[in-house]
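Lecture 7, part B: from sequences to assemblies.

Below are the input chains for today's worked example.
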Amino acid sequence: MSQNLKLLTEWTPLSYTVDMITESKEKNDGKIFLKGILQKCNTLNQNGRIYPKSILAREIVNYQKFISENRALGECDHPDSSVVELKNVSHIVRAADIDGDNVVGTIEILSTPSGNILKSLIEAGVTLGISSRGVGSTRSEGSSQIVQDDFQLICFDMVSEPSTPGAFMLREGKKITQEELDQHFTSTDRIDRIFNDILNW
Amino acid sequence: MSKSHNKKRNVGIIYELLLRNISDSLIKNDKYAAQKSLKIIEKRFDKSSELYKEFRLFNALVKSTVSNSAVGAAILTEAKQAARRCDGKRLNKEKSLLIRDINHSLKDSNFYYRRIPEYKIYATIQTLLNEWRAGDTSDLTRVIQYESRAVEWLLQEKTESPTLEGSVNSDVDALVVKIMTEKINKRYGDQLSEEQKEVVRDYVFSISNEKDNRIFNRLTETRDRILSDLLIFEDKTENSMILNKIVDVRKRILDESFHSIDDNMVSRFLVLIQLKKELSKAIKE
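Predicted structure of the full complex, as structure tokens:
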């Protein structure tokens, strides 16, 4: 494992209307499900980074284990950590897939304290974004940074719109140790990741 | 005491042969037979057994490397004392039971005839262990001769394995080593574990010297170990996602043939070594 893993976060606007929220609640016994683009591949993002599609596609395959085990949790706002704190959990990712150059998915807002805050914001029509949280290294290529093969997706958080491009860079870049990563990825997560590699040969 | 080496009573050889039997059975898609060998290992190499103690001692002598003959001699002294602490009578009985299990349970006429690449040193180490345990009745001439060979072996490993650059000898084209080292470093940076680096080193030697079959031996050994660990892990884990994939993963690993060992195969084995490490941790948890 590389010793230069850093926390990397990316913001993607989440498109929804109040009508869509009302419809979702009617269809799902009051639960809010949001569908949309979670992240973009091969595109220069607001932080000046590009995620190659092969890397994000691989991470979405690895993320399926979290989804199927109901562990694909996310927080309201980005913490400065690679660990998802249960007390801050606001939503759960129910589906994630690659569609062209987009990672698309479905998110269910939970009835947790943080989830209820999120619900109120959504119902009020506040502009929110979805933000991936992961660890990895980057390599400079011209004026952009290319995310490298050691990237590991941790979760998707719900965040407010950054005031300026690169706003989240102030909070990220923290070095992550293997011990911190091991708090998030279990032994079977790591084995599953290797299995996916082997099955992709 | 018998003065000839008996491979059926060589703890290292028998363990290797059981691993080979597991992988051969899996290649033939005979999981039942593989399980039988695995059960024998679990039962007879139990941590409380004398057989397990001897196996650990054997492994330490076969796998260790030392920097000089004084350290080698000191290790042999320690090993000698450890060997003498073994309960020889119980050990012999356990070996007889192990042989009986293999003969009765596996019914594999080829079992004892599979090739063990490091047969000579395995035989030397086992003979030494036997002689050490014999105490006053040991054959001193033979002990001196074999101890000398064992020290040579310990030293030999050391002189060949510290770094890729340091491994260049008359058989190896230094340029090939340099190119391969740069290539591997560029691709993996500081991510390689010691065991992964050893695979790369053996690969470089195999490119430079076609007669050098260390890479073949290492890959075979790694594959056999993983297949055996996968079986144990399959029994232990309840994770449905893992269980759904394990058969296909095993098949992919079994499909690895070593007829032509190239960069891609070595890359895949670096992944397998990572799997071996994770499986080993998971099994112990």
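Note for the exam: Residues 7-154 of chain B form one domain. Keep this in mind when comparing with the next example.
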